Amino acid sequence: MMQGWLRSDGRKGIRNVVAVAYLVECAHHVAREIVIPFRERDVHLVGFPGCYKNEYAYEMMYRLGTHPNVGAVLLVSLGCEGFDRRGLREAIAATGRSVKMLVIQAEGGTRSTILEGRAWVQQAREALDRQTTVPVAVNDLIVGTICGGSDGTSGLTANPAIGRACDRLTAEGAACIFEETGELIGCEGHMASRAATPALAEAIVACVDKAARYYTVLGQGSFAPGNAEGGLTTQEEKSLGAYAKSGASEIVGLIKPGDIPPSGGLYLLDVVPDGEVRFGFPNISDNAEIVELIACGSHVVLFSTGRGSVVGSAISPVIKICANPDTYRRLSEDMDVNAGRILSGEATLDEVGAEILGLVHAVAGGQHTKSEELGHQEFILTYKHFEPMGPGCLPV
Amino acid sequence: MTAAVDRRLLLLSEQDNVVVALVNLKQGDVVCIDGHEVSMRAGAPLGFKIARNGLAAGDKVFKYGAAIGSATAAIARGDVVHLHNMKSDYLPTHS
Q1: Across-strand partners of B36?
Q2: Cβ–Cβ of A233/B68 closer than 8 Å?
Q3: Which single residue of A71, A245, A273, A366 has CA 20 to 30 Å from B24?
């Protein structure tokens, strides 16, 4: 049975994590040392490395600190960085969560801060462990989808199977999010035809155009050498395969990182920054996208891989769906689902879609994913700039 | 989705001019494409594309029923279609 922790905003978490957040790279070591003794006890390390203020980074840290899977937050500051640590502490405290801020320069240095931090995490962990749970329904869930380490099999097996699972989840009232508009170049016309309103269709086409312009300035698409070694040749071929993750449902909204879907249904997440090209690549690796999906409230992330990614994430569990049967044989210890069975005729897309759906239920009931079992808690957050989403992009 | 006659190959859409290898095909393997027997001139690992018919340089390459780029050289039925003979119509591929 799915169960979780009810938060003050009405959302429910399927995990009850203590998040330890460094607010600049200079506090990273201290924060990591605080977490180490609690590695097996749902204490996760997150943070932002930059010293200079960035609205996007603040919004992301706020959304992560108030994510339904997070029960308590320890902020670790050096003391002279630009991050608005007091604002973040107050914003998290306003949700009723236990929150503590340690400033290394005021605590007496590295060792003192680590000891103080561990003592706080210990009591916060004990308090969270005493909290009671409530039932969770499918329509309480937000499910993110992503593909990484794609090859020629991703678009044949794992991605369309995820699409089938998303169709069933949204039909039962869940919100599903697909993303990476730079990996949807070539699919904009089809996506527009699935949009709930003409205004949304227009906004979807505009956001893919923005992605194409952005990547053109960078001189390279969202296409890694491993994609070509796996048989994919062009960005648009990779796009069509990735697009299959979105299933066949109507697209009800377009959101940006940190926007929480206001209702169930299928949402496109625009991850490409607004304005002139700044700060480099939109997402420097898969975990940057996973963090954005989680900042949009994703309780769980469905990750399709052909070449074989092993990552998980801090805060929300990642279910890995392996597209390629050869990869599955090599990396089965890291994979939750073997979608490559579709190629040999041992399973249909619908059967693998149902298996994924079953795993979402199990993981929302507390079962650990492979990456959770293996201790994966990757996290990365970099500089970006976004303008607020325009009108007409969300369901009324 | 229509299956090609040869179960080692997948035709994703009738409009496509490539099929996808569902197994690791080696050079010299004989495959059947639309009733034509072709000896593979190069290996095609799982997930790679194979031309369903001849293409001229500049012809669009179709997969999933959609254009995924253009041929940059003449391609014969049974040839592997990849970076050496096609390119994106949107963005250059670096690998």
Answers
A1: B33
A2: yes
A3: A245
Which residue, A283, A307, A327, A332, is CA-closest to A180?
Answer: A283
Q: Which two tokens stand for residue A205?
A: 């086409």
Nearest CA in chain A to B81: A233
Within 10 angstroms of residue A106's Cβ, the number of other Cβ atoms is: 12
The number of angstroms, rounded, from the C-alpha of A101 to the middle of its chain's C-alpha atoms is 25
Query: Could you give the CA distance from residue A294 to residue A216 in angstroms, rounded to a whole number?
Result: 28
Chain A contacts of B64, Cβ < 8 Å?
155, 240-241
> What string of DSSP letters covers A50-73?
-SS--HHHHHHHHHHHT-TTEEEE
On whether ipTM exceeds 0.90, the answer is no
* pTM for the full predicted model: 0.92
B86 touches chain A (CB under 8 A): yes
* Tens digit of each residue's pLDDT (9 = 90 or more) over B40-82: 999 999 999 999 999 999 999 999 888 899 999 999 999 999 9
Integer Cα distance of A379 and A53 in angstroms: 19
A contact set with B (CB within 8 A): 151-153, 155-156, 185-186, 212, 215-216, 219-221, 223-225, 227-237, 240-241, 306, 324-326, 343-344
